[in-house]
Amino acid sequence: MEQLAINGGPKAKTTPNYPMYPGGLEIGDEEKKQVLEVLDNKYLFRYYGPADCESKVKAFETAFAAKLGARHGLATSSCTGALISSLVACGVGPGDEVIVTGYTFFASCAAIVAAKAIPVIVEVDETLTMDPADVEKKITPATKGIVAVHMRGVPCDMDAIMAIAKKHNLIVVEDCAQAVGGTYKGKYLGTIGDAGCFSFQYHKTITAGEGGMVITNDSRIYDRCMSYHDTAACWRPDRFAEQRYEGELFCGSNFRMSELTGAVMLAQLGRLDGLLADMRKNQKRIIDGIANTKGVKVRPVNDPEGDTGICLMFYLDAKEKVEPFANALKAEGVAAAGVFNAGIPDWHIYAHWKHIIEQKTPTPVNCPWECPYHKKSEPVQYDPAMNPNTLELLGRVIHMDIPPQMTEEDCDMIVHAINKVAAVLA
Ligand SMILES: Cc1ncc(COP(=O)(O)O)c(C=O)c1O
After folding, report:
1. Which of 360, 426, 350 is nearest to 388 (CA)?
2. Ligand 1 atom closest to Cα of 149?
3. Range list of H helices, 55-207
4. Is residue 193 part of a domain?
5. CB under 6 Å to ligand 1: residues?
6. Contact 403, 19 (CB under 8 A)
């Protein structure tokens, strides 16, 4: 048994750790060229400018949707805006309940509230994505839809989720914020439900600092998303109010993407396959290296082929082991951390969503929770302990990012560190 670095031994990993900005760290000549074109043309708004130019946002939407195999792409200013627009477009509104998991960035849940519906929070299973069995249990006459979050880069059990949705006539919005380029049984994530939503915020695989996208195969959902994301699509050049069909014309918000963002994203999209290949290669090398490590169980994945490789998550057999294990890994030079600790706030775990748990609203009317249109007799209520499986699983898991910039040597040192620490502490 080797002496752990935390006890004075030599570090297993002596190379520096990259921050997790996969596409961000690669920003280079192509992004500069695209952005300079926008600036040189003074064409900063997608619908008009002093010169007649092709919109970068439009070009990005077209290229993104084509790459993923969707009929429509609609660029937005964020994934939160994409989620709100999609939910509204799918017909979610006052009185509806929408199911979401308790392990996601809380924006997935907040978007439901912003669409004036009531979030119902279900358990994750060992994959740390939506547990279909718990979804079935929490369906009520008021349930309108499901937000399926492909959390930390891996696909939900989409066969089971789509079967439940079909049985109960629910809409499905896929939250692919953390899983761009991921697949499920050969289909790109975001193309399986009614709509798929993506984030290009700086921590995401491809990025312009901020940004989002909706993809859908349904032209009506696209038109309604278009309306909601752009104050009734007032700049849409191809039809004015009179030409809109019933259900297309209504007031919306402004979640439009700017041409500068579209320019950066066009260049970043060209990097997606390379980034995914590098993260997947690194992830595989590490997982292979710890496959037989006693006391460590790598998170199972619904379709391992579809994992984007953005991270490594593994379980220990007791939550008490997590903090010492993570501290020992850090001392070895590996940037790893536990995921759930009731005392440490984290916006990704429902037990910390005080604004949801306590139903905080900007006015005393308490919309959407006290809604005369809510079809269920009892009000929806929340408790930090209501999803024990989620907390139990997250309490035993260790997480580390897998930057695409990592080398094979980095990966081998991480394997060495995990094996060294597991031999003493797992
Ligand atoms: C799962 C998930 N959904 C939604 C969002 C919101 O994305 P954005 O910041 O682009 O609004 C994020 C951002 O981190 C996320 O991780």
Report:
1. 350
2. 1
3. 56-68, 79-89, 107-114, 132-137, 158-168
4. yes
5. 78-80, 104-105, 107-108, 149, 175, 177-178, 199, 201, 212
6. yes
Per the listing, tokens 């579809």 go with 306
Question: What's the CA-to-centroid distance between 105 and ligand 1, angstroms?
Answer: 6
Q: Is 400 within the bounds of a domain? A: no
Condensed to tens digits (0 to 9), the pLDDT of residues 251-299 reads: 999 999 999 999 999 999 999 999 999 999 999 999 999 999 999 999 9
Tell me, in angstroms, the distance from the centre of ligand 1 to residue 154's CA. 15
CATH of the domain at 56: 3.40.640.10
pTM over 0.85: yes
Number of independent structural domains in the chain = 1
- Give every CB contact of residue 143 below 8 A, 6+ residues apart in sequence: 96, 97, 98, 99, 120, 168, 170
Residue 244 belongs to a domain: yes
**How many C-alpha atoms does 255 have within 13 Å on its Cβ side?**
28
- B/e letters for 293-313, b = 16+ CB within 10 Å, e = fewer, are bebbbbbebbbeebbbbbbbb
* Burial status of residue 50 (CB atoms within 10 A of its CB: 0-12, 13-18, 19 or more): exposed
Cα-to-centroid distance, 243 and ligand 1 (Å): 34
Q: Using one digit for the tens of pLDDT, what is the confidence trace for 35-92?
A: 999 999 999 999 999 989 999 999 999 999 999 999 999 999 999 999 999 999 999 9
> Residue 341: what pLDDT?
83
Burial of 318 (C-beta count, 10 Å sphere; 0-12/13-18/19+): exposed
What CA–CA distance (Å, rounded) separates 277 from 25? 16
User: Domain span at residue 234?
Assistant: 29-271
Confidence at residue 238, expressed as pLDDT on a 0 to 100 scale = 80
What is the enclosing helix (H) or strand (E) of 100? strand 97-101
In a domain, 79, yes or no: yes
Whole-number Å distance between alpha carbons of 120 and 152: 21
Residue 120 confidence (pLDDT): 98
